[in-house]
Amino acid sequence: MDTIGFIELSSIAGGIETADGMLKTASVNLIFAKASCPGKYYILINGQIANVEKSIKFGTVTGGGFVVSSLVLPRVHPKVIAALNMAGMPDRIEAVGVMEFFSVTASLIAADTAVKAALVDIVDIRLGTGIGGKSFVVVSGDTSSVKTAVDAASAVRSDEGMLVNKAVISKPDKKLISSLF
Q: For residues 156 and 154, what is the distance between their CA atoms, to the nearest angstrom?
């Protein structure tokens, strides 16, 4: 179950129809299928690479002109899957890094890149719902590791104009940390 697949569509009805077909086409797990801002539909699955590829291929064909973006991310770090399932807050936070993107696919790739680049935890991956279609990733760890992770992950998507902003905050206030959840 080390591969995730994602499709963003500009039609809610088309998204629901696409999600149903994707689940019937291949043996994959549905992480979520939901309407989002602004009138989009997100489908996130995981499973074995061949099944995820088959399901995403079906989804892009079925979604047709409503497909905004799609992604197959093999060998995704287990911390990304845990964060998508809202695994929880680390016990101690020395620093946080925040990366904000114009697309959900950029956040998924950035989260995976960040945890592979440095010893950090993912505090949150917020995928477009309620924030105008933007998305963001919050990582934690020691300040040096957080900076390394944020720099590596931001560089991956900044060349495509998907990065909105990034920040590394050392010794964040406890009230700020609790507000992230």
A: 5
* Amino acid at site 158: S
Query: Terminal CA-to-CA distance of the chain, rounded, Å?
Result: 27
Find the domain containing 44 and state its range: 3-73
pLDDT tens for each residue of 96-151: 999 998 888 888 999 999 999 999 999 888 887 677 778 899 999 999 999 999 99
How many CB atoms within 10 Å of residue 13? 11
The DSSP symbol for 87 reads -
Please give the tally of structural domains in the chain: 2
Residues 66 and 149: their CA atoms lie apart, in Å, by 33
pTM: 0.83
Residues 126-136 have pLDDT tens digits of 887 677 778 89
* Same-domain check for residues 64 and 84: no
**Rounded Cα–Cα distance for residues 112 and 122 (Å):** 9
153 and 113 Cβ atoms separated by less than 8 Å: yes
Q: What single-letter amino acid sits at 29?
A: N
